[in-house]
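User: Here's a protein and a ligand (beta-D-glucopyranose). What would the complex look like?
Assistant: Let me lay out the input and then the predicted complex.
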Amino acid sequence: MDKKWMAAVAVLLGILTYLFIGFAHHSSKMSSIVKELQGHRGNGTQRYHFVLIEQERYNPYWEMVEKGADQAAQEYGIDIEFAGAVRNNVNEQLNLLEKAIAARVDGIIVQGLNEENFTPVIDKAVKRGIPVITIDTDAPSSQRLAYVGTDNMAAGERLGELVVETTGGSGKIGVIIGSDQSANQLQRLDGLRQVVEQHSGLEIVDVRSSNISHMEAIQQAASMLREHPEIDILIGTSATDALGMLQAAKSLKRDTLTIIGFDTQKETLAAIRNGEIEATIAQQPYLIGGMAVKLLYDHFQGQPLQSEYYTEVKVLDSSNVEEGESL
Ligand code: BGC
């Protein structure tokens, strides 16, 4: 009887041990599946989940940023998700940033559109352990890890020098900026002003915002030209503006205006080729997207980052416009 009893206890213990091991194995598997679903690296798989938040999705400039980021993500085995407002909208951008924080992604890349609104939300991400890299527009007083993009003030100064070079230092200027909410646009305007102020023959007579919309750029440029017929130079500081200004000039039959823009939209390059637009300041959106992903990845590998990574701008005119195709 005793032997039987002991054998039964041993079998029971065996069953319990088997069940316990099975259960432990199952729950560890479940927890790694849950982690994977939450975007964390699974055991040994090392796949990070990054989110890149843009000012406007389906905008040709941001599409180039995406391409560069996507290429780098593939290279480093990173899952990257792109988000952005369909139409320029600060609040929507901030909501997307909040959502990325709530989803506990591994890293965030975001345009630091303006300090006042973005700094507290960027800092919230960092406090929760999510490193943030700003691109295109910096939020330097936030706790972001690094900034990757154009030095916008310097680019504005370069724009000013370009105006001086192409006009010989005299003329009345109308400026269309992308947005009066975006620090990068205001910095470019500042840089431009600083150079213009050093030339008594140049004067900025009006500044309007296009809200990075082609239609608004046309309307604002047309209304500016009607109000100030003395304007003979039009300057645009975002990717969308030069083409709107060109269309307004055409419809008002002002074909002797000097038009200088920003970035490398296909139609901008074509208009430089046929002489309708004088020149453009080309940023490097593809490089910016790629570098941001790489740097965030480097950070996870324990590499220290510097605070700013300024990408160069290039002046494109009819002599070198083809270089713009690859930016
Ligand atoms: C700016 C971006 C902006 C884009 C609009 C670029 O010049 O750097 O901030 O979203 O123009 O088309």
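Summary: The chain is about 50% helix and 20% strand.
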